[in-house]
Amino acid sequence: MPPAPDRPSPEMPPRPRAGLRSVTARAPTRRLPLPGASAYPFAMPDPAALRIALTDPDDPAALSCVGGYYRYLLAAFPDLFVPAMLPLPLPDAARYRPPDGAFLVAWSGDLPVGCVSHRPLRPGVAEVKRLWVDASQRGQGLARRLMRATEDHARETGVAHLQLDTHSALTAAVALYRSEGWTDIPPYTAPPANVWLSKRL
């Protein structure tokens, strides 16, 4: 499924050396509901620095983020997605576990506020899936940091190329990918995707 959009930061942050190292950003302090598993109901974000960490795809934090991503797609694009297209938990969760895959969660204190993942397609090639940032954290460049983190992790495990599919309606996401050096490739998945991109690592 196409990754959810996030508005790119007006200033490009420095590239982290490793995908799993902490990423610093200030979190807002207003009260908000965090989408996803009931383990994360109404809560106040910790004003401490955001960090990105490798997480099991069946962990409640990962499921919380994927649930938030699915709800965003269903609410924003009801003509493109139906619940049957968005299974949870992930039926192919094993593909997002090391050493060949990864599921990364962004944390604000103890709250999961974003995610991204990649899974192997064929030797040397992996696919990025499910980029999502909670609405409370958008506008800080977190989506860009998540993308760079998954790219770094893939590179460190021997991946030479990344691919993704998305939809042209996700204009901010497509703009983010292109600004990070992703380029168009021929279709390799079925609708609703209508944009296919690749990046050499």
Can you give a write-up of this model?
This protein is α+β, with helices and mostly antiparallel strands and 201 residues long. The protein has one domain (50-200): 3-Layer(aba) Sandwich (Aminopeptidase). Helices cover 20% and strands 23% of the residues. It has three helices and seven strands. It has helices at residues 60-76, 142-156, 171-179, and strands at 50-54, 102-108, 111-122, 125-133, 161-166, 183-184, 195-200. The chain has a seven-stranded mixed sheet, sandwiched between helices. The longest helix has 17 residues, at 60-76. It is globular, with a radius of gyration of 16 Å.
Which key phrases capture this entry?
single chain, 201 residues, alpha+beta, Aminopeptidase, seven-stranded mixed β-sheet, 3 helices, 7 strands, 20% helix, globular
Task: Describe the secondary structure blueprint for this structure.
Elements: E1 50-54, H1 60-76, E2 102-108, E3 111-122, E4 125-133, H2 142-156, E5 161-166, H3 171-179, E6 183-184, E7 195-200
Parallel strand pairs: 4-5
Antiparallel strand pairs: 1-2, 2-3, 3-4, 5-7, 6-7
Q: Do you know the CATH topology?
A: Aminopeptidase
- This entry's quaternary arrangement is single chain
Largest sheet: 7 strands, mixed
| CATH C-level category | Alpha Beta
Measured on Cα atoms, how large is the radius of gyration? 16 Å
Named CATH architecture:
3-Layer(aba) Sandwich
Order of helices and strands: EHEEEHEHEE
Mean pLDDT: 82
Helix content class: 10-25%
Q: N-to-C terminal Cα separation, in Å?
A: 22 Å
The percent range for strand residues is 15-25%
Q: List the total number of helices.
A: 3
- In total, the number of strands is 7
Q: Structural class of the helix and strand makeup?
A: alpha+beta
Q: Count the domains.
A: 1
* Strands in their spatial order, largest beta sheet: 1-2-3-4-5-7-6
